[in-house]
């Protein structure tokens, strides 16, 4: 297996262009959290022509709703949630400059098209590895929608956060290619 | 008649909620080891090792292994010679869930279906009570995550679909679920009964330890055959490609109506959590 690629956020077009499916990437820097309810609100803001609560250009959104942090913990357990529920909202955010999404599970054709058109990528983190992934979070603060509890938008500072490229900017999909490679009969 | 104060049930449910979410069963860890031996995909092996490391961290640091600490599903086997005192059973269980999810720093994941407003304390719990003989109370807490539950289905097959129909449907369900339910999964299958009972059988089948045999040889055979077919799909750990799509298929079956052939498939992620205690 090839060595993991280290990447600093925010991401540029040049950063994402070189990534290909199956690449293991270690992300360091700021990423934002957001899942079902937060996505609906961001989408509604865009529909009304309003500003988003943070500058989304070059950013990564991590689909996660963490457990509450224990005393002494920076961040609670934080593995990815299933991404297809964000598919209805993601293309509009990608169009506004979102460069990456972290989740698990396959994306719709419209999300894949938007990634190709606007140079964005989709990463998977290991679903269910919440305790392990929490250790990669070095700082966390709520930046919007505190009323949503675990679903609030948080700004995280991560160090060597391990992810795998599922969809690259050329329209490839690791879920499809991986299954093909190992399918028997 | 033996008296049991429901306060004891609250305390035990509280502890079981925390234990189930932080301490993955030895049977699951062993099944990860068996899968590592068989897995051809290097990325798949990496994932399985990550899951073992994650379980170790969760246990050592007493933190949730997964951020989705689930809907609290509670199975109660209540001996008919037990007299519960000090309050209602349902409220005692709810209070245990409330305390467990608060004290264990577990995520509250229950909300109103329309407004999506969080209930704030992970109640209500889902309670399945069975009255059994004897003077004991068995409590099983099995937190169920949303990602894998969403991939589950109940279908009313036609009797002529037969065993082949069961196989086809279960394998197809796993195939269509792909990477969504956090493979490697455990596939709970309920056959027979009525519409609602098939689903309950599927869920109950997940309580059986991984690596154990089905007591009914016909079903044991069917479990092996379905598992083999599933693991030829190529989905693999986390859907990245590989041999380990599911760790096990578990089946529970009961008689059904002469016109019916109910089938339920309850998909369980690799965080196969359940803890029990007998009072």
Which spans of chain A have pLDDT < 50 for at least 5 consecutive residues? Answer: none
Give the SSE string of chain B: EHHHEEHEEHEHEHHEEE
Q: Catalogue the unreliable spans of chain B.
A: none
Large-scale geometry of chain A: globular
Query: Roughly how much helix do the residues of chain A carry, as a percent range?
Result: 25-40%
Which term fits the overall shape of chain B?
globular
Tally of discrete structural domains of chain A: 1
In order across it, which strands form the biggest sheet of chain A? Answer: 2-3-4-5-7
Please bin the fraction of helical residues of chain B.
25-40%
Class per helix and strand makeup of chain A:
alpha/beta
Going by CATH, the architecture of chain A would be Alpha-Beta Barrel
Structural class of chain B: alpha/beta
Mean pLDDT of chain B: 97
What does this protein look like?
The complex is a heterodimer of chains A (185) and B (279). Chain A is built from six helices and seven strands. Chain A has 185 residues and is an alpha/beta fold. Chain A has a five-stranded mixed barrel. By secondary structure, chain B is of the alpha/beta class. In chain B, helix 1 runs parallel beside helix 4 and helix 2 (26-38) packs antiparallel against helix 3. The longest helix of chain B has 20 residues, at 42-61. The interface between A and B is large, with 47 and 51 residues.
Write the layout of secondary structure elements.
The complex is a heterodimer of chains A (185) and B (279).
Chain A: E1 5-8, H1 13-17, E2 24-33, H2 36-47, E3 60-62, H3 90-95, E4 100-103, H4 109-118, E5 121-124, H5 130-134, E6 137-144, E7 153-167, H6 174-182
Chain B: E1 2-5, H1 6-22, H2 26-38, H3 42-61, E2 71-79, E3 82-85, H4 89-103, E4 126-132, E5 137-144, H5 146-149, E6 153-157, H6 162-177, E7 185-193, H7 195-205, H8 217-230, E8 246-256, E9 261-268, E10 275-278
Parallel strand pairs in B: 1-3, 2-4, 7-8
Antiparallel strand pairs in B: 2-5, 5-10, 6-9, 7-9
